[in-house]
Every structure is written in structure tokens, then in C-alpha cells.
From TrEMBL:
Gene3D superfamilies: 6.10.250.3150, Glucose Permease (Domain IIA). Residues 75-147, 240-277 form a coiled coil. Residues 313-406 form the M23ase beta-sheet core domain. CDD domains: M23_peptidase (cd12797). This is Non-catalytic member of peptidase subfamily M23B. InterPro entries: Cell_wall_metabolism_enzyme (IPR050570), Dup_hybrid_motif (IPR011055), M23ase_b-sheet_dom (IPR016047). Keywords: Coiled coil, Membrane, Transmembrane, Transmembrane helix. The chain crosses the membrane at residues 6-25. It holds the Pfam family Peptidase_M23. SUPFAM superfamilies: Duplicated hybrid motif.
Amino acid sequence: MAISDILVFNFLSLSIASLFIDTYLSSKHFQQLGAASLFIVSLLFAFPAHAEQNKRNESTQQQNRAKLSDVQQAIATQESNIFDTNKQRSNLERQLKTDDLAIAKVAKAINDIEVKLSNTQVKIATLAREKQQLTIAKKKQERLLAQQLRAAYTTGQHDYLKLLLNQNQSDKIQRTISYYQYLNQARTKEIDKFQATITKLLQVNTEHQEQVTYLQQLKAEQLQQGTQLRTSKKQRSKTLSKLSRKLLSSQQQLNKLKAEENNLNQALHKLAAIIQAEIDLTGLSKLKRKLSWPVKGRMLHRFGSRKQGYLKWKGVLISAPISRQVQTIHNGTVLFSDWLKGYGLLTVIDHGNGYMSLYAHNQTLLKAVGDRVETGEPIALVGQSGGQDQSGLYFEIRHRGKALNPKLWCK
């Protein structure tokens, strides 16, 4: 209630009081004067007090409404910030996948080049040895031909036509003619061998030079791919740095890990549904303590240890340097070979009878879906894909979807 309203109310109250007093005086009701006066005075004090209380209540309500509006605005701002943060994280995670795949492509190219370099160097060494052997054979044949030519020159002092016309020494003539024929045949054979050696030597020289040129091209390509790999790694580092600034609470981190684990379980269930039993894949049930670890390194996280909240590790995380070969623990068929959120570049191998092995956080994958792999065969290179801050391999063994302790199988 406004102050002007209170003044008007007080004026009206005084007027009513005066009217009551005049009425009582004219009626000579003096005995009621005291009670009426008290009633009027109480009215004069009661109404202003009630108005003041209403004023305070209204002010409090206005303040509460203002606070509620501020809280609602803060909630809306926070929800908007959370939405923007989640959107940015999603974009950064997609960018991380792109970065991981770019690194994988370059790393695979470098690995292929290294294999080609090794094969080329072996071939060059083989050709060099063959070239040396041919050169030795060529020199030997040259000496033999030289001896034959000297022998022919020595015996060639007789005129061949005179020997034929001479009828007095027919036996000697026959022997000489036979000797000439023998020398000619031997010389012709050696000349043919010499020509074949020369031809082969030329071929080897040409192939050797081609392989040397190819080796130089491979080395140049390797340098180029190395530069591209460093560029891709820098881009990935920037993405990880941006992701690290989008800090998650413990509950958000737990929810994130649960979602990633659910994605993996769903993927494995789908793979299990499409597995076609192979007669020669007998599983791992009889191979406890007989298998080798897929990579050598220090154990960072063990099976069953606490991961986040109530979540536990369903495999092991092994520290290893980038680009070290990851080898399959047993023969099988590649079921999955791709990038999966939370696990990076992932390979899953079916070993038969419901047994699978899983290899995650690789730098690149060397096998495609459907490929048959043998025990100890390289299937990937160690990396840190999937958002890892250090290089290593995450490794699981599962039987019909249930995670098993790898230490019971690997020695």
C-alpha cells in the first residue's frame, strides 16, 4: 500500500472518529465514550500496521520472484553451456577419429615401405652376389678361350688344305682333322657359354641398377610419409589438448566409460552373431599358460582392477613404444578392423568355439576383415589412438562375450 493511500485512510479514520464522538456527545452517552474512543484508536493503529505488513510481503514476493528469475536464467545458461560443451566434445571426438585414421594411413604406408625396403635390399644383395659370381665365371671363360685360341694358333702352323692333299700320311691327317674338330666344338661350346654369361650379367646389372633406383625412391617416399606423419601427430595433439580442456566430472567420466563399454559389447555381440564356425579353429580352451603376449611391455592396468567408479578393467593395458608390432596370440580370422570410440583403432580376432581376442589403441591396422592370421603374425602396430595420452596396447580375451583374465592364457 502506497504512503498516499495510508494518509487518505488516516484522514477518513479521523473523520469517522469525530462523527462517532459528536454522536455520542449529542446523545449524552458518556458511558460509551471510553469504549468508542478505544475502538477508534485501535482502528487508527491497526490499519496502518496491516498496510505495512502487506507492503513487506509484497516486497518479499518481488525479491523472491527476482531470485527465481535469476535462478531460472542461471539454469538456462548452464544447460546451454553443457549443450555447447557436449557438442564441442562430440566434434572434437569426431576430429580425433579423423586424426587417428590419418595417422593410421600414413603409418601403414611407412610400414609397407619398410617391408619393401627390406625386400629390395635383400634382392640387391642377391643380385650383387650373382653379379660377382657371373663376373668370376666370365673371367674364367675368358682364360679358357684364350688357352684354346693359343692351342689353335700353335697347331694351326700346318696348312689344312695341304694336309688334305697330302696322301702320304693319311693316318696323321685323320688324327689332325679329328683334333681340329674337337677344338672347334669345345671352342664353340665355350663361346656359347661365354655369350650366355655376358647376357645374364647384363640383365643382372640392369636389374641391380633398377632396384637401387627403386630403393632411392622408397627412401624418398619414406621421408615424405614421415613428414606427413609428424603433421598428423601435431594435429592429433591439438585435438587432444582441446579435449583435455573440456573437463568432465567423475560422474560424466563414468557415464562416458559406460557408454564406450556398451558400444564395445554391442559390437562384439553383433560379431558373435555373424561368426561362421570353422572346422580348423578349435578355440583357446586347451591353451592356458601356453600363449605368448601380443606385445612385450610393462603392465599398466591389470584385469579386474578399478577403472572408474564401480567399473573394472576387463582386459589389460600394456605399455609399449609406438610402432612396435602387435602379434596375434593364436590363429584365427579377423572379425573387426576399424576405429571404435573409446578404443581407437581396434582389431578383433575369432579363434573358434566362442573365443575372441581384442587389440585396441593401435597406431595402424595391418589386417582387414576376413583375413586369416596365424599364431604370432603381426596384425597391428602399437599406438595411442582413441584419445590415449601414452602409447600402449589394450588387450582382452573373451569367451561367448564374457571377459577372461589374459594372465590365465598368456605366459
